[in-house]
Amino acid sequence: IEKQQKKLEWLKQYSTIEKEAKKLEKEKKKFNQQQKGVKGYRIQLFYGSEKGAYDLKEDFQNLYPDMKTKIIFSSPDWKVQAGNYLTRLEADSALVKVKKDFPSAIILSTQIDLD
């Protein structure tokens, strides 16, 4: 009976901890959604005309369908950027792959989306 009581007590504690963890995770997600972004890195693929940006984005998405791409207008030029990386190491790793198809790609330190 003592073992069963200890087990029951442990299960209650575990359940409480699990509920708290889920509550904290929910609060963190809510906080992150309210943020505009965080400091991180993206791979810049293109800098130039509007048509060039849209054409390159389409080509890139065909080759890398799982990598998020973004077109940014910064007068008078258009930029195509890919990925959202929290660390330079993650960005460098992705850049090695991307450079095979887009040799002029570079890494930029910028605000990234929290998705």
Written account of the structure:
The protein is of the alpha+beta class and 115 residues long. It is 51% helix and 29% strand. Strands 2-3-1-4 form a four-stranded antiparallel sheet.
Secondary-structure-based class equals alpha+beta
Annotation, overall tally of beta strands: 4
Sequence stretches where pLDDT stays below 50 over 5 or more residues: none
Distance between the termini: 49 Å
Whole-number mean pLDDT: 90
H and E order: HEHEEHE
Helix share bin:
40-55%
Strand content: 25-35%
Q: Please give the count of helices.
A: 3
Gyration radius (Cα, Å) is: 22 Å
Q: Give a short account of the largest sheet.
A: 4 strands, antiparallel
What would the principal axes of the Cα set say about the shape? elongated
**How are the strands of the biggest sheet laid out side by side?**
2-3-1-4
What is the compact description of this entry?
This protein is 51% helix and 29% strand.
